[in-house]
Each structure stands twice: as C-alpha cells, then as structure tokens.
C-alpha cells in the first residue's frame, strides 16, 4: 500500500490537536479482533498508543515500513505479517496437529514492529510529527525489535508474547513455536515488500541497508 493510497485515519489530528491514538490503532489493525482475550487485546492497543504518543506521530499510517522504504507503510507490513502468521497457524493446527496459541501469535505479530514508532522519527518529514520525546524514547539508537519488547513488557503482555518480539537479533535463547511463527511470517512479508519496492530479497536489503548490522 503506497503512501498516497494509505487511508488517513479518521482520528488523525488534522487541526493540530491531539491525535486520538486509541481510535487510530483500532481502525488500522482490524486483526485485533482475532485476539480472544479481551485483556491482551487492550494491552496491545495500549502499547501502540504509548509508542505513537512518545514518538510524536500525527498518524499511525505515517510510519514507513523501513527507514529507506517509504512507499509501504508499517501498518501494511504489520497486517501482512499477522495475516501470514494466522494462515500458517491454521495449517500447523489443522494439518500437523500442533497446539498453537493464536492469541500469542496475533499479539506478537501486531507488536513486533511497534518499536518503529521510536526508531523512525529521524527518517520522516517533520510535518508528520507532533512532539517526539527524543530525550527518552524517540531515537534510532535502539533497534525497534528491542524497543518493541520494552513496550510489551511495560504494558504487561504475557511473557510468551514478549519473547516473540525480538525477531532479528537472536536475543531470546529458547524459541517457542509461536515465536518462530512470528519470525517466519515477518520474513515472508518483508521479502514480498523488498522485492516489490526494490527488486531485492530481505537478506540483500539487510546486508545493504539494515542499521543493526555491524
């Protein structure tokens, strides 16, 4: 979904007022309804609201997929990851008989890139921002997989969700079925996006452009 085609949230603050982040998140991510646990669903929304507020974003659709790929939104990617993971979980459950915790999978997919609200503040036009908290949160010095984990931890999502969020760096010593599913779904969506946007694979993009490479 290119930026010009992304629907501007009805809750965006076009008049310079405070954006209704809660409404933006619920509108942008209908996959929230796939989470059966009401408390978990609200905690996922809370993490996004905190991230958007601290990052100082006007609209959740203003966050790009990557620091150098702005014609695809982070919303599109997060939704794509969630959709791929849900379909994979269905196959794992129905075809292989695996016991997949769908609530954990969906919550972790929806939160896996929430940290981009912090990391990408320096890579977008100033007019897309309200008042980023650069003193404590809005910086690209911390990879989004780690700041996303921190947000999930702060709002109190279950440990099974938290451990599935650091999807790049191998910080989690023991991978669960749900965490591996989130990681593979992220790769599937990211490969599609980098191919469509730049004609390269995710690995090629990471090798050339990732800010987490040494």
Fold and architecture overview:
The chain has 214 residues and is mainly alpha-helical. It has helices at 21-28, 38-55, 74-94, 102-111, 116-119, 144-155, 159-162, 177-198, 202-209; strands at 64-66, 69-73. It has a two-stranded antiparallel ribbon with strand order 1-2. A hairpin with a 2-residue loop joins strand 1 and strand 2. Helix 2 (38-55) packs parallel to helix 4. The chain is globular and about 50 Å long. 43% of the residues are buried. The model has no long low-confidence stretch (mean pLDDT 91).
User: Which structural class do the helices and strands define?
Assistant: mainly alpha
Low-confidence blocks of residues: none
Which percent band covers the strand fraction?
A: under 5%
Shape: globular
By DSSP (H or I, 4+ residues per run), the number of helices equals 9
SSE order: HHEEHHHHHHH
| Average of pLDDT | 91
Helix content: 40-55%
Give the arrangement of secondary structure elements.
Blueprint: H1 21-28, H2 38-55, E1 64-66, E2 69-73, H3 74-94, H4 102-111, H5 116-119, H6 144-155, H7 159-162, H8 177-198, H9 202-209
Antiparallel strand pairs: 1-2
Helix pairs in contact: 1-2, 2-4, 2-6, 3-4, 3-8, 4-8
Question: In short, what is this structure?
Answer:
This protein has nine helices and two strands, in the order ααββααααααα. The chain has helices spanning 21-28, 38-55, 74-94, 102-111, 116-119, 144-155, 159-162, 177-198, 202-209; strands spanning 64-66, 69-73.
